[in-house]
Amino acid sequence: MDLCHVPATREKGWYLALMAPNVKGPNYAWLDPSRLYCHPQGLQDCVADLLQPFQGDAIDMVAGIDAMGFILGAAAAAALRKGFLAIRKAGHLCVQTVAQPYSDYSGRQKVMEVRTDAISPGLRILLVDQWVETGGTMRAAIELVERLGGVVAGVAAICMENSEGGKWIQERYKCSHCVPPRLQPRFD
């Protein structure tokens, strides 16, 4: 798809067609949204769709999850005129951190961490990641925010799969994603 082309009519999720399918095998995600980020209108519309359900909500900061959540999170923070917090994989921050172990979508055990001085009690944080598959990574981020006294104002991702973990998150937090209901079965 032409990275400059903008369709005459743009319904929610039109930019999902910009994502490229996996050609490298089962150790990689099945779709790659990075091409969507190269498309100026696609990225703008994606961020607008992610933020639409939170219009009027109190959000103090946006946190993006390592690594691709940094792109959407920073774009959302800029659109909201809020600060951005990076929630990192362990070992990348040279400041005081709090850590949370988790299992990622592939079942590998990992550790997520966040700096301790960025979240004060009651701070309302919108968590953003590229994709919620099993929910393990997002749950670790939620744990970190709440352990430091922050409030999860919402969870946003391009896609939230209807996995057990994805459903757990959607039942407990206000969520936003870009996949129209008619396409959701193709993404699960």
Automatic annotation (TrEMBL):
Enzyme class at the top of the EC tree: transferase
Keywords: Cytoplasm, Glycosyltransferase, Membrane, Purine salvage, Transferase, Transmembrane, Transmembrane helix
Occurrences of domain Phosphoribosyltransferase (ranges): 56-178
Listed SUPFAM superfamilies: PRTase-like
GO cellular component, one term: cytoplasm
Pathway of action: Purine metabolism; AMP biosynthesis via salvage pathway; AMP from adenine: step 1/1
Reactions this protein catalyses: AMP + diphosphate = 5-phospho-alpha-D-ribose 1-diphosphate + adenine
UniProt superkingdom: Eukaryota
A Gene Ontology BP annotation from the UniProt entry: purine ribonucleoside salvage
InterPro entries attached to this UniProt entry: Adenine_PRTase, PRTase-like, PRTase_dom
An example molecular function term from Gene Ontology annotations: adenine phosphoribosyltransferase activity
Claim: Transmembrane helix is one of the keywords in the record: yes
Cellular location(s): Cytoplasm
Coiled coil (residue ranges): none
Transmembrane segments: 61-80
The protein's assembly and partners: Homodimer.
Family membership: Belongs to the purine/pyrimidine phosphoribosyltransferase family.
Official protein name in the record: adenine phosphoribosyltransferase
Organism of derivation: Lonchura striata
